[in-house]
Amino acid sequence: MPYSEKPFSTSSVENREPILAVIQPLFQHAHRVLEIGSGTGQHAVFFAAAMPHLIWQTSEMEDNLPGMRLWLDEAALPNLPPPLLLDVGGHWPHEVFDAVFSANTAHIMSAVDVAIMFCGIGTILTPGGLFALYGPFNEGGRFTSESNQQFDMRLRAQDPRMGLRDIDDLQALGNQHGLRLVANHTMPVNNRTLVWQRDS
């Protein structure tokens, strides 16, 4: 079915400025950033416009590409190239990137796919490069808020493979693939931005 209207994510509008405040200084020396799971493309357009010094490479699964292209085509930013087809369980780009960003993806992936994502990032991120992951997370095996617990229940009712991931588990995954957790930023609405750095 052809796309005639751009998809729209309210949460992307609500969280884009707090996320930018965290990633803009992190990515100030980056040249190429890969966004995993770009969704509608709204974040990509906003961040690419705010950080014109870097190439913001979007990626998504096949079904989401047509809608995202509407946002990218309308923006027509010189540092926003066409999106890549990327399913974390499939083929990864052959290029390397100075940074990787992903928002609200870990909890909609299976635990297996989250592990594969960390493995893939470990292969495409340059030494010293940064990976920023935004979303809701558990800490120490516990929910950090009642709303996050309810959100987790809704996700698992939809698909038992989905659910909030624990920061300790993600840290262990990072360690397996040369990624060291270097920052844990508190964000609005019980979210976090976790930042890993690849070993140099």
**What is the arithmetic mean of pLDDT?**
95
Structural class computed from helices and strand pairing: alpha/beta
CATH class placement = Alpha Beta
Uncertain parts: none
| Count of individual helical segments | 6
Q: Total domains, how many?
A: 1
Q: Specify the biggest β-sheet.
A: 6 strands, mixed
Round the Cα radius of gyration to an integer and report it.
16 Å
Instruction: Give the CATH superfamily.
Output: Vaccinia Virus protein VP39
CATH-derived topology = Rossmann fold
Number of strands: 10
Shape: globular
Plain-language structure description:
Strand 1 (32-36), helix 2 (42-50) and strand 2 (55-57) form a beta-alpha-beta unit. The protein has 200 residues and is of the alpha/beta class. The chain has helices spanning 10-26, 42-50, 65-75, 111-124, 146-158, 167-176, and strands at residues 32-36, 55-57, 59-60, 84-85, 97-103, 125-135, 137-138, 165-166, 179-187, 191-198. Strands 2-1-5-6-10-9 form a six-stranded mixed beta sheet, with helices on both faces. It has a two-stranded parallel sheet with strand order 3-4. Strands 7-8 form a two-stranded parallel sheet. The mean pLDDT is 95. The protein contains six helices and ten strands. The longest helix has 17 residues, at 10-26. It has a single domain, classed as Vaccinia Virus protein VP39 (Rossmann fold).
